[in-house]
Amino acid sequence: MLFVMKKTIALLMLLGCILSMQAQKKQVTSVNPQPSVPKVVKLYTTAENSDLRLTQTETLSFVDLAQPVETQICVFVDPTKKFQTLFGIGGALTDASAETFYKLPKDKQDEVLRAYYDKEDGIGYTLARTNINSCDFSSGSYTYVEDNDKDLKTFSIQHDLQYKVPLIKRAITAASNHLTLFVSPWSPPAWMKDNNDMLHGGKLKPEYAQSWANYFVKFIKTYEVNGIPIWGLSVQNEPMAKQKWESCLFTAADEANFVKKYLGPTLKKAQLGEKKIIVWDHNRDLLYQQASEILNDKEAAQYIWGVGFHWYESWSGSEPMFENVRRVNESFPDKNLMFTEGCNEKFKLDSVYSWRLGERYGKAMINDFNNGTVGWTDWNILLDENGGPNHVQNMCYAPIHADTRTGKLIYTNSFYYIGHFSKFIHPGAKRISSSSSRSSLITTAFQNPDGKIVVVVMNSGDKKIPYFLWMAKKAAPTVSMPHSITTLVVE
After folding, report:
1. DSSP H stretches of helix in 226-354
2. Count of domains in the chain?
3. What are the catalytic residues?
4. Which domain holds residue 300?
5. Confidence of residue 34 (pLDDT cuts 50, 70, 90)
């Protein structure tokens, strides 16, 4: 009898061990799920010296390839390794864009809106930025209050109601009400600054810090009364640049101080505490120093959603400082990184079809996303045949130019390069691991909320490159054309 009992107990213990091991195996499987076997891949291509512009070029099928060899060029994608969530991709709705837009005939206006905001016929922008007060891409300097009105009793957005507000509202409608807007000031009114000038830098006078914080509240509430929801705001556009246009200087300490003592508490008191605050909003060169000083100030950091950055540190031909984006992402993983402005400068009408315009975008977007960026915002969505209007002659390129003399729209290839991301990668997508076995191909990849995988591959070289898209021991062969960008949608 005792022997039987001992045997029964031993069997029960063995059964318990088996069940425990099965449970542990289930947990491991759920933590590290094996990638599902990919099915087919649809390719969309834009390439120099061709008529391919976001054109579906082929459909690929996968074959077995358990272990690639050195001679087989591959883009490797691992959907089990997930990173940041995409917030959105879009461009700025400035005075210049709005003024140019309303010089176009109605059918061309509709075409611009469809091109940017339609998810099927366009490139599906979901993110936008606009200016508080005037910026360089305005026809002249302006504010919303009369001089020395510290209490902001004269606050009015009458200026914006002519062009900018109507354009923003039409863009929101064209995007089926899925357009996230953030706002940025280039300068406070001149009388609030120590140089008494909206241009040429200068600093905010301490005695007007509260009035300037109140100004943000007035702007947000007035825009929202006029049917334009505001998601967030940056504290100051390019705070370390003394420009010939509207500008205002803030050190990192200045910005942290303004956020924690004035802007953050004022938004909260006005029941606008949910509005997201973005700091820095300037180039990648000082990005880490500024972010670290501001975000290490815990009183300031509690109000801050993320850090914005531009790309103009590479204007002289130097390499973009993508590593600085990664450093901020590594050091402050609880904060978000947003590309808030970029464009190609020094406009020349005879260069609107230059291929370098788009390749700058492709390289920047791939590297910024791979280093942790959650949102990417181009500068003006539309400019005229002169690269403006701009009241200080700082003429630049936009993805679309309008020849206001003829009503013709000019699509630069940067429009298509941006579209290779914005059209296919949707808000809520998770970046997944992707890598290339050759430096001549650069890549990033995301998995959309619907489960589809989107891989972007760019070739900025002069030679075509045969390669495999490799996932879960399966590979799909294709060819990257010279000076091309391709989006591969895995279904």
Report:
1. 252-258, 264-269, 287-295, 298-301, 322-331
2. 2
3. 238, 341
4. 87-424
5. low
